[in-house]
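Mods, move this if it's the wrong board.
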Amino acid sequence: MATTSPPRRTGIFAVRDVGSLAAEAHVEGQQLKRAVGTWQLTAMGVGAIIGTGIFVVIGEGAAIAGPAVILSFVLAAVACVFSALSYAELASSIPISGSAYTYTYATMGELVAWIIGWDLILEYGVSVAAIAVGWGGNFNAFLDTTFGVAIPEALATSPEDGGVFNLPAVIIVLAITLLLVRGVTESARVNMVMVVVKLAVLLFFIAIAFANFGTQNFTDFAPSGADGVTAAAAIIFFAYIGFDAVSCGSEEARNPKKDLPYAIVGSLVICTIFYVLTAIGAIGIARPDQLAASDAPLAAALDEGAGIGWAASILSLGAVVAITSVVLVILYGQTRIFFAMCRDGLLPQGLARVSPRYGTPARLTIGLGLLISVLAALVPLSEIVKLVNIGTLFAFVLVNIGVIVLRRTKPDMPRPYRVPWSPVLPILGILFAVYLMTDLPLSTWIRFVVWLGAGVVIYFAYGYRHSKLRAGESETVGGTPSS
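Not the wrong board. Structure tokens:
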């Protein structure tokens, strides 16, 4: 007896079928190469998480919480882990490029997916530009500390900071762009080397700190009480952001059902261990006020606490390498999210073509690299970079909601990894993210709403009319109806 399928939803909240998403990943000309494994994906997560955060934010946290900044690192990790588990479930169940954008398309519909995709474009793009600017500053500091030379300020800073053109920021963005065009395998290998270097630098700091460890700085452990620990955790939380970029590699993982959950949760666990050990070591050799007073708190701890001034060069090198790997992974995530949106027709489909030579969306990668290099060189970023925080937390909220929704709408869908105690843990992830969002200033919220509003206008002007889902193209791939 013939059965009729339910009518296709064509409204702005139309949901992409998971089978259709999976089938579309095999369309000729839009198929990415599955070339990376668990360890490479885990290194991508570590590469995205460990950047300037641990080299700088520990001082800001110590100024608020005192020695209890150690607990702040633990609390921030706990706040992240709930969202990490939700990312792991969706990444293993829907191993398609696009991260939170794709998961939202499969659970809450096209308009919400567009909004989160538009949000992620801002989050990743501004992040790369701002991190590239930070890379230029750290690279100049490394040259000055190690060799006594420095790039002229006019060529090393943007007009916002009194310069003319931020040349180092442009160079690092373009170099990473070319590497990403070459292929995901080559990019993963380079990232692995950089991750090993920066973990070695942190191990160097931890070893020196514990060799000179003392307990005198732990007196008056929590001068501001639990409120200080929580307030510091809200700042430190952003040193953990980056594990979500692993999910952007869903379509290029060799065994996504196994690789992605291990990589997402594993990278968060590795970084938490290093962060906590680094915080304990720093407090063991330097007072919280010494850490708070320096722009390079780890170098200050070794110099003032352990009397090892020459270590500043090693830590400067670690910071440069750490930031380079962050630029690589975040720009990679940006290209894959944009790629997924183009492939769905919400942005120009021509940009979703994959290079037959390199197996990457080369045209799209080059275009984004050029645009971000201009942002890094010339555009004032001090205010709009604050949108990165709220954008990331907004994505966390929707991913946790996505787990709950998909458990109800697709209860029998294969889930290689399942969040335990759902919906309790996803709800906790939502509450933590919302709590941290409420702590952000009103000006950030206003800019965020304006950006999303502009995105909605673009959606109805272009995306709504060109959506492959609305045209029915995404329901039949290669002439075969999707599951």
